[in-house]
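Retro notes, item 3 of 5
We never archived the inputs for the flavin mononucleotide complex last cycle. Fixing that now. Sequence and ligand:
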Amino acid sequence: MSPRRTETGGRIDRLRTIRFTFDGAPYTGHAGDTLASALLANGVTLFGRSFKYHRPRGLLAAGVEEPNALVTVLRGEVREPNIAATMVEIYDGLVAVSQNRAPSLAWDIGALNQLGGKVLSAGFYYKTFMGPVIGPLKGTRFWMFCEHFIRRAAGLGKAGTAPDPARYERMNAFCDVLVVGSGPAGLMAAKAAADQGARVILADLEAHFGGSAHWSGETIDGVPAADWAQRTVGQLEGNDNVRLLPRTTVWGYYDGNTLAALERVTDHKETPAKGEPRQRYWAIRAGTVVLATGSFERPLIFPGNDRPGVMLAHAAERYAVEYGVLPGQRIALFTNNDSAYRSAVALKKAGAAVVAIVDVRGDVSNEMRRLASEAEAELLAGHAVVATEGGRALTGLKVQRFDATNGALSGDDRSIHADSLLMSGGWSPTIHLASQAGARAEWDPARQAFLPPRPTQRWIGAGAFTGSFSTAEAIAEGRAAGLQAAGGSASSAPLPIVEATPGDPDPAPVFEIKAKGKSFVDFQHDVTAEDVRLAHREGFVSVEHLKRYTTLGMATDQGKNSNVPGLAIMAEALGKPIPEVGTTRFRPPYTAVSIGSLAAERFGDLKPERLTPMHDWHIANGATMYSAGLWYRPMIYGLAGETVEQAYVREARATRESAGIVDVSTLGKIAVQGPDAAEFLDRVYTNMFSTLAVGKARYGLMLREDGLAFDDGTTWRLGEQDFLMTTTTANAGKVMQNLEYFLDVIWPELKVTVTSVTDEWAGAAIGGPKARAILFSCVTGTAVDNATLPFMGIVHGRIAGVPVMICRLSFSGEMAFEVYSGAGYGTRVWEALIEAGKPFGLVTYGLEALGTMRIEKGHVTGAEIDGRTTARDLHLDWMLSKKKPFIGSAMMDREGLISPDRLQLVGLISLDNRPFNGGAHIVEELDEANPHDSIGHITACCYSPALSKYIALALVKDGKARHGTRAFVSDPLRNRFGPIEIVSNHFYDPDGSRMHG
Amino acid sequence: MLITCPYCGPRDVIEFTYQGDGNRERPQPASQNLDAWNAYVYDRLNPAGDHNEIWQHSGGCRAHLRVVRNTLTHEVLSTAFARGGHKTESRS
Amino acid sequence: MAEYSAFSLLKNALTGNKDWKPAWRKPDPKASYDVIVIGGGGHGLSTAYYLAKEHGITNVAVLEKGWLGSGNVGRNTTAVRSNYLLPQNTRFYEHSMKLWENLSHDLNYNVMFSQRGCLNLAHTPAQLDDYARRGNAMRHLGVDADLMSVDQIKRLVPALDVSGSARFPVLGGLMQRRAGSARHDAVAWGYARGADRRGVDIVENCEVTGFLRDGGRITGVSTTRGEIRAKKVALAVAGSTGRVMQLAGISHMPIESHVLQAFVSESLKPIIDTILTFGMGHFYISQSDKGGLVYGGDLDGYNSYAQRGSLPIVDEVMSEMVALFPGLARVRMLRSWGGVCDMTMDGSPIITTGPLPGMYLNCGWCYGGFKATPASGWCFAHTIAKDEPHEFNAPFTLDRFYRGLVIDDKGQGATPRLH
Amino acid sequence: MAEHQLPERQSPLEPEYHPGSHGNFEHGVDVILSETRPGSILQLAAWAGEEKRLIEVVRKVTGLALPDGAGGGVGNGARAAFGFAPGKFTVVDEAEGLAQAFAGAITPAIGTLTDLSHGRTAIRIAGPKAEWVMAKFFAIDFALPAFPLGAGRSTNHHDIFAQIQRSGADQFDIYVFRSFARSFWKALCHASEEVGYEVQ
Ligand SMILES: Cc1cc2nc3c(=O)[nH]c(=O)nc-3n(C[C@H](O)[C@H](O)[C@H](O)COP(=O)(O)OP(=O)(O)OC[C@H]3O[C@@H](n4cnc5c(N)ncnc54)[C@H](O)[C@@H]3O)c2cc1C
Ligand SMILES: NC(=O)c1ccc[n+]([C@@H]2O[C@H](COP(=O)([O-])OP(=O)(O)OC[C@H]3O[C@@H](n4cnc5c(N)ncnc54)[C@H](O)[C@@H]3O)[C@@H](O)[C@H]2O)c1
Ligand SMILES: Cc1cc2nc3c(=O)[nH]c(=O)nc-3n(C[C@H](O)[C@H](O)[C@H](O)COP(=O)(O)O)c2cc1C
Ligand SMILES: [Zn+2]
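Structure as it came back at the time:
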């Protein structure tokens, strides 16, 4: 039998033995154990090392608030650092290791930091490491040198880099009543609400429902509280309208009664079932929330309070009653309130020797005296613990007489031999969720605790959360809250009857025992009472300054143990009451949540892929794909051994020589329909559309309201009231939203519907001298000659039996056609065109060749319409109608938008016959060592097969005036400098004779 | 945060796109009053408190809504179609 | 007041740290000052510091409505860089960078400025070109910038997924090596101590509730601690600009207040040694000296003064984080918070005289003003002292929007949530 | 006009459509996934005030009696219709050619007709865990009282817009943009593994 496991008792399954390792050593425990309880049962006292001084630390708590016993759980290569051992349910094969120690937990070199002692006081790093003011170590050098070592010494666990193979999932839930916490209050609330027929969700972060009933040893309705809880859970389980979520931490209370919760679905399992997520992220939209989150017991602050073996009283009680483990054989308690007496009795019952109860209060009630004697403990009323003894485990403590009214110690100290010291410094309601919205908690001087703020959202509190610390009150408040939340009326049915240990809920206002030695307030961060007083001396007296200066409350427990004692010490130093010092702001999450769980279903799948109808064809035919926003588009269709440049040059050349075809399905397409469609387009585009004939298309330009260029594309008039607008791929969504905005908000009188039809149509652009011949050979039902299908004309016909719509327009500068068909027929039409093109030398081309041909033509895209350019900058002023106002027309002539030194679109030719790079700059004078005075930059560049030169488009200051002049490309990032000629952006076929045919 | 779309009912903020200050008045299209245009495009009321604003239910019915929302508490006080018509009061 | 040094630290340790004095005094406000600076954030404090240090104007009060540093200076993700696209911005932020590089010495306060670099990841060739354009723009203004290859990136940040199988594979990145991070609180406290040592009164818990006027001229402020007169009243209230300007009767500004969230993970051993930004989203990350991963993403996207955010952004940021670092899925988010950002219509700041006589305005820092703290104060002090802007802040006028002279690094136009 | 026999349309799901049982199905499948491939998917939009007339047109052309009210809808197996936005309705028919049937009926005075038969992909999820799986994607309440039979909803899963009609107590028809359909389908299959699913 393990040294500390009791013979009987506990809610563990003693018949099931579970094997696990900690720091490589094998241990066993039982089903129902946490890593903490199992190790404790095995006699382990040392669980971790503190952050700054690397002091040895044992278990402080039994739940989520544990600050010391942080471990890393390993699943193969995958590491999960900083997990409280108290929250790890053991499973066969569990591997856990300790952290922040080298070489081992027992012998940690970092403990040398303790020698630094007072030098390493709060905020010391602000005062030093600045290094010399002159010389080679001035500036940031010296600090960065020191920082290197500081960073390595800091940090808790080590994160892994192996990808996490787990699955995470999101779940959206709706309910009438969400009950957070399943103690007596929460259970009653859930039951009452469910009985009213409300949709109820009950969540508790623990593996078992029941909260404190799980281990309190009280009796409810004549049975042990735990059995009562189980029975109540059983009644809830049967209900269709109730969802029970164990192992689920509600961690965030957001606006609109939206709560975020994390369910640990398989963390306690050796292997998850197929498809089962490790964790599930619940986004819960609740009608009303019942907050029944209970309370935390507080430590007391005294020298040596961090020694392994010093533990919270209720935690010890939990270990004994819930897990059948005793934290020690000889136990002493130290308290400022009555609740520890119940713990003493429970531990006694579980088989420990309770050697003493040290109570700071001089007068202890008779009831408590009775409990002390029931525990066979010596009662030291009006005493305080002033020191603890031992190394990596407690061996004893020292007590002295104590006056609770003024904190004075007197008399000789007395040693007590004990291997476990349990402390209780009073209780703080778990008000985190209620406070997250920023409402101020209210200090209750009787309870010596912050009580929940007035609700800022629809929630109702119940139980210890409200400061009602007895089970009977919890039950009554729970039922009332559940009824109210479900819209029911008060019930006259009798409440369950509670038999509980008596006790006064109000502690003595004693937080710290000032004696010689380090007294810890924030255990993990090693913030001592002296640090708090130093902060006071240096003026960091506001509670938020205290926190930031000392890092009190910034550790993984987020002040759950330390906040109130820290405040109390500061309040005393200031001579002010605690509420005037205030409390720090509560923030989500309530307890730390894995980042994977928050990514949820997007873990490993950040964004969907958007595919054109011909996508699979492209892949099957050797295309290299390029991601453009969410879309995938062919970049090149490379042949074996070709470079990208060789491929696009071949594709572009073949297109200009015979014909090429490219997938343009990604272009944004918007159906603009209705009696006012033409009028609407006149207002939206800078040029006229009402004059466009049915069966024709026109190139259009849109500006933003501020007068800068927004987007361009062609719009086709398919019917009197029926237009098909195309936009650039990148701006499709933005343009759509803009149109909808104007129709809904600005011009609701216009009868127009706009509908995204991007996905309705597959588009193939086929261009080149042979393009018409190819169409001629495969299109039926319409002629495609110049008369029937002139430039910007539209015809309807069929290809391979599929209805198609063909518009003659050109981006490449060649005689070209866009062939649209229903997306479901896209590949069929595409293949038919390719088949028809074979005799003509048709090539497929990708975005690179498309880009090349558009650069040769001097067409603009998103690289030039970049949100900073005007129509004039891009030489599109010819499109600005003077006959009508349009979006942006009123703003486009402001001084800054017409000033001559703006960047304007030009063409560049490389004079040294070397390639350009996108993003290179242009200068008038070359200075490779100290580049300066940029006059512009390259927006797009390529090798031009048509010109047999390296060319580029660029935006250059006063560019138009520079046509024909020379300058230099200056690209220090890629060390590319050289002479260029500035020319017009229309490199190729400037009069458009090729595309007009 | 939840916004009650008059058509779709209460929906998570994730379904909406913010379109800003709803107090702005767009000048007549042909207006040459540059000050008015500047004010419309650039100036915002930006109050700390109740704010009249435009949201699009872009991840739902795509209607634009006029929403009165408190910028200190994020409480949504009322919603209505920007085109006019149905209005939903949320303040209890 | 004592100089801070290793020696003073040791000496004090020997005497039980009993002799340390407050880092700054807690004076009651006087009846009048030469200059009142409203806002005890980074910019207000640095303004006061440089007024005293550079211009000898020491009869100055900084009025802070809460505790010093309670605004964005105390809640930002501490990235300091000067890698802007447009020259107006680059020049200004580079001036700031130079001040940062000597700030700890200047203030005799270790602000822990650590030049561990800032790397913008590129995921498409077009984006790489964009970054090249920006990097080259920087180089032409004498600012350091480099393109990094995937191999170099892999070596610098081994935890990053640079495999081609990622949804948005890393193709390279733009690195500014002199960029880095500083301890946010230390910056506020260091400037406060520095200003205080030069005679500036730092008055906390003193909220400005109105302006005193003589005709059209601003002559002081009313506060929760009484009326205070001043020859010059300077605003540096960042996210509260809209509210404070309304007190002065100016109801409309080219500014919207938006909430930006930030996050910190539990403390970890060093794993990310630089500042890193994701090119296909808004995610950015660094690791604090304490070991916490400090990261954030996009604005929540709506007007807010609430200093707290909503859930969708939390999910968005974390999704982007594990897209870059699939190994960090089991690391846990410890705390999240929000700050209120004064978003302008072009994403660039405003530092100017006026708009009312006697008033000086410093605002529009969006989510990027921490890095500006030294230069902002330095330029604002110049503007206040000389009644005209320094050439570094001359472009950052209030009327630039109306005149079409916007400084729009992102090219998003007058949609503040997109800057 | 003589109707041509049109070739079969290509489904965007094709390479990822694997009929059979998948995931954790040893204890039975809890959802069934399928692509319903309707021949016609139309969007009808009425000008403000013309909604009732449009509803009447729908009744005449399809025989479906659309209830008047936000998100109201009906279905009869072969045809279905539901409102998804103010004045806007989706009408679906197993058969092709529904657009022609409406062409004359939706006059400019009533509103507009937009054919989306290719642009939207229809996916059906059915079975006892259909609500559970749907809740993984969409932040709307799928419980029957909140989302009654026949009703329609517009919502989205991150970048993917979806119109959803409840076509049975345990059955939903989801209309997504064609270009996103494969990604969505993969995600849907992935999310269904937990409960065991069958592709039909
Ligand atoms: C989450 C987040 C992350 C960020 N990350 C970065 C980053 O990585 N890099 C970067 O460069 N920038 C970043 N920023 C931006 C940066 O923090 C701010 O731009 C900058 O701090 C603003 O200047 P400030 O320090 O003076 O503002 P603040 O600190 O906000 O100072 C303004 C002060 O004015 C006070 N005040 C307001 N009204 C009154 C009144 N009526 N009377 C008296 N006082 C008043 C406020 O209380 C406040 O203290 C971030 C911001 C946020 C919110
Ligand atoms: N002075 C005292 O003796 C004293 C003080 C405090 C409490 N108590 C005892 O505590 C009990 C109070 O009952 P109760 O029901 O109010 O509280 P409880 O402590 O029994 O239950 C609270 C439950 O809420 C859960 N919880 C807390 N935060 C959560 C979150 N964010 N998400 C999910 N679950 C969360 C906890 O795990 C716990 O199970 C009584 O039995 C009372 O006797 C006694
Ligand atoms: C760079 C940086 C690092 C932080 N590290 C921690 C941390 O380790 N632990 C912690 O609890 N909070 C940390 N915080 C968050 C602060 O606790 C706090 O939430 C933030 O400053 C905003 O203040 P508020 O929450 O009081 O509004 C950090 C904040 C910043 C800006
Ligand atoms: Zn809606």
